Amino acid sequence: MIAAGLLVALLGSACAAEPSRSDHGPDGSRPHPGQQAKERTGASGALAARAERAKRSQAARVAAARKWGLTSTPLAAPAPPAVKPQLTTRKGFEVEDGETLPPVFTTVPVTERVVFLTIDDGTEKDPELLRMMDELQIPYSAFLSDYVINDNYGYFRQMRDQGVSLHNHTLNHRYMPGLSYEAQRREICGQQDNLQKLYGKRPALFRPPYGNYNQDTLRAAQGCGVKAVPLWAAEAFPDHMEWREWDRDLHPGDIILTHFRGRKDWQGTMPDMIRQVMKTVTEKGYAVARLEDYV
Ligand SMILES: [Zn+2]
């Protein structure tokens, strides 16, 4: 916002300069504001348009936060990195001979105060969530299991159309280490094919159910196009957070897990859960960024 404000000030002084010939109509009359805006071309026009968009976008965020009952306006994420960080498997999360397999991690190695929001399974299909997240402009990623989304694929098509990336959480949400390599392959690669057919894009990310996996899981996932296996550092519920780390806190790059659930599964609605997690994230000084910009 500081940069945008400065930009507006600079352009303001530029616009106050002597009007050029084109600022007047053929009869010497002043053009109406729309015409003037259209004629303001080149770099300064593009900059002004960008500053104006940033200002309007922030105003929309403030209004949306108030409308949806958030305790404060979510912080805007910084521009995505030009180069994605190098991902490695978290210490203690390795499998044997896993050096060339997709990395398994709970935090993305970044220095900025950003965290990532991921929502799993797909049981609850609350239209309010789509409206809320779209208006708040909070990015998130969905990890979908076919056995719970197959009664309403259209809901997730709408989600995709809002810019949310849909990723793989297996066909039937089984405990992967309990299955043979072949059965794991069917669960993971079957959902890769399924999501590609339904939504037009083959997921790059896979999250094993319950966060449980073995070497076969990662080999099978790699074999059908999975690039990385993001787990989570914290889990959000409508009334509390659960933490993986001993300090019970957020850290730059932490991945937050939550679920598509409703009143019959937990004490609240999807919007209640978002209000709770955003209160924690914003109070701790973090912005939610788009996982796919970093991974
Ligand atoms: Zn799950």
From TrEMBL:
Cited PROSITE patterns: NODB
Species annotation: Streptomyces albipurpureus
InterPro entries according to UniProt: Glyco_hydro/deAcase_b/a-brl, NODB_dom, Polysacc_deacetylase_ArnD
Domain NodB homology: residue ranges: 113-295
Source organism, top-level taxon: Bacteria
Name listed for the protein in its UniProt record: Polysaccharide deacetylase family protein
Positions with biased composition (Basic and acidic residues): 20-30
A UniProt-annotated Pfam family: Polysacc_deac_1
Signal peptide feature range: 1-16
Location of region: Disordered: 17-52
Keyword DNA repair set for record: no
Keywords: Signal
Chain ranges passing through the membrane: none
